[in-house]
Write a structure and sequence with these properties.
Elements: E1 2-6, H1 11-21, E2 27-32, H2 41-44, E3 56-57, H3 61-67, E4 70-73, H4 80-89, E5 93-96, H5 106-113, E6 126-128, H6 135-139, E7 143-145, H7 149-163, E8 173-178, H8 193-196, E9 201-203, H9 211-221, E10 229-234, E11 241-247, H10 255-265, E12 272-274, E13 292-298, E14 305-311, H11 315-329
Bound molecules: NADPH dihydro-nicotinamide-adenine-dinucleotide phosphate and N-acetyl-L-glutamyl 5-phosphate (X2W).
Length: 345
């Protein structure tokens, strides 16, 4: 099946190029950029020399449709919405990596993304593609909205407790850290080496746009979960997210019982790996892979459940999950092209 990529010059785009290069069915035959049409992707990413030397074209939905059946759209929120519509109108299947279509409440989008809300009709048929959990919804989608990086780690970390309705209202605290590639390739002073190296910064305190996305998903499984406290930090590394979730539970539970809940929930879920009790994952242990690794514990003094979930933001948090979604949507093995061991060390 021929697939296209819009937003090829970005970090999400170039990670899609890497993963699609070895895909057994999807053939990436065309890539697009709004400002670099006519130029070779190699000139922006020399590591692709001799392997992928496609020339980028201007974004033209009709032209894309003539060449490909499915498109991965990896452009910023606020820009994605118009391209999504035009690509869908041209008859393409679209997997969108931006935050534009993730929030069911359009007022939430306005409030947290500080952009004009999307018309409700535009959300019809959109599926929030949390690929490890909602496979049946994905098979019946008309459009896939790929989850955000932090929400992927956080929601997979909390799903077993949410579906069993074990969480005390408004009690969830998520302390999350990300590598710098999460911010994309665009230059900014805040992301200079001299600002990031040997530094740890909290950002978007109580205002992060992924807050309502996490709440929306958790409240689907348990409407009593309410609101969360979600804080994000930038750490001096390229790839990786660690989300540590602190939760009050309605009834006391032992660490063994909690661990059993997680291992049972995820026993048939290929890309979520629950670590043995007492072991906690680190970001390097999933780097370059589509895995989300989880460690669980109970603080016996306070009774809080403490869950640690890690992903590679560019793979499970973006390109990998997008391909997993496209695999499921088109009837392929969900792991096609994604059976990658993490790069270690
Ligand atoms: N980085 C990450 O870890 C994650 C990213 N995402 C999401 O994926 C999407 C892409 O992110 P990322 O690759 O990191 O971002 P980058 O900043 O690295 O790249 C942005 C891309 O968007 C394109 N673009 C910018 N403006 C426009 C426009 N007006 N019209 C069309 N294309 C445009 C750029 O193309 P050009 O070359 O023409 O400038 C570039 O290819 C975003 O929505 C982001 O939120 C989601 C999860 C994780
Ligand atoms: C490190 C870093 O800056 N990460 C970005 C992730 C943004 C992102 O992925 O944007 P969406 O809202 O489109 O999902 C952030 O925290 O805003």
């Amino acid at each position: 099946m021929k697939v296209a990529l819009v937003g090829a010059t970005g970090y999400g785009g170039v990670e899609l190029i890497r993963l699609l290069h070895n895909h057994p069915v999807f053939e990436l035959n065309a890539i697009y950029s709004h400002s670099k049409g006519g130029e070779s992707i190699r000139s922006y990413y020399p590591h692709l020399t001799g392997a992928v030397e496609l020339i980028m074209d201007d974004i033209d939905p009709e032209k894309i449709k003539a060449k490909s059946d499915l498109v991965f759209l990896a452009v910023p929120a606020g820009i994605s919405r118009d391209w999504s519509k035009r690509l869908r109108d041209a008859g393409l299947k679209v997997v969108d990596l931006s935050g534009d279509f993730r929030l069911e409440d359009v007022e939430d989008y306005k409030k947290w993304y500080k952009k004009d809300p999307i018309a409700k009709e535009e959300l019809e048929g959109v599926v929030f593609g949390l690929a490890d959990i909602v496979k049946d919804e994905i098979r019946n989608a008309t459009f896939i909205s790929n989850p955000g990086c932090y929400p992927t780690a956080s929601v997979l970390g909390l799903y077993p407790l949410a579906k069993e309705k074990m969480i005390v209202k408004n009690s969830i605290v998520i302390d999350a850290k990300s590598g710098v590639t999460g911010a994309g390739r665009g230059a900014s002073v805040a992301n200079l080496f001299s600002e990031i190296d040997e530094n740890l910064k909290i950002y978007k305190v109580n205002t992060h746009q992924h807050t309502p996305e996490i709440e929306q998903q958790l409240n689907r499984w348990d409407p009593e979960i309410g609101m969360i406290t979600f804080e994000t930090h930038l750490i001096p590394m390229n790839r990786g997210i660690m989300a540590t979730e602190y939760v009050d539970l309605k009834s006391p539970i032992t660490a063994e019982e909690l661990h059993k809940l997680y291992t049972e929930t995820y026993k048939d879920v290929k890309f979520v790996r629950v670590r043995p009790l007492g072991e906690f994952p680190s970001t390097k242990e999933v780097q370059g892979s589509n895995y989300c690794d989880i460690g669980v514990s109970v603080n016996v003094r306070t009774g809080k459940a403490v869950i640690v979930s890690v992903i590679d933001n560019l793979v499970k948090g973006a390109a990998g999950q997008a391909i997993q979604n496209a695999n499921i949507w088109t009837g392929l093995d969900e792991a096609a092209g994604l059976d990658l061991l993490p790069m270690y060390p």
